Amino acid sequence: MSPVRTDEPSSTGRSDVDDPGRTNSAAAQVLAKFKQLNGFQRSLDAFAPGVAFLLGYQLVGADAGIAAAIIAAAVLALVRLVRGDSVKVVTASMIAVLIHSLIVQLTGEGRDFFLTTVIRHVALAVVFGISLVGRHPISWWICRKAGFEPAGEMTAERLRLHRRITGMWFANWIVHVLVLVPLYLANNVTALSLAAMLLGKPAAVVLAAMSWLRIQRSRPQHTNE
Questions:
Q1: pTM of the full predicted structure?
Q2: Residue 153 in contact with residue 137, Cβ under 8 Å?
Q3: pLDDT tens for residues 108-135?
Q4: Please, which residues have CB within 8 angstroms of residue 87's CB and are 6 or more apart in sequence?
């Protein structure tokens, strides 16, 4: 009897999962994409208004927190424009901070600086959850819009891929909801601020990089169909 070759991938396909080299390669590719998407810079940019608000709020009060957040956002907007960032994106970020600040001004509660953030994540969890049981997972629609998916009917293989990707994002939004909602209801402004910042832009950029990697790795199989 011929000896069994151990260097061939198993029929179950688990060799890819158990291969440390492949795992390290995936991590390296995600990190590279994270850097390509300016993940570190985007994360720092997202932290600035939140950190400024938290410091102002804790040291003086809600009004000081609002002022600090607006000043930080304005300075950041100027820096980003000089750096060559999109005027549309910079303006949207500035408007978002102004809306957060206006809500705090109206309610007088520091936790409401993150009210729209909490509502947005609850809405995203609902949308992604519903799409998981629908015919087309939402990641497929997004990739079609971005040009990552060609026109035509979705194959069973692509359906499985996008269910996994959509499920990954759904889990992310659920984590946001489970962390942020209790902190908001408990009126724990410090913990809410830190959680919103850490679970916000950094997690989104990492998941975007992971989604990109999954789609890139699926392209050869899709091409050969």
A1: 0.75
A2: no
A3: 999 999 999 999 999 999 999 999 887 7
A4: 81
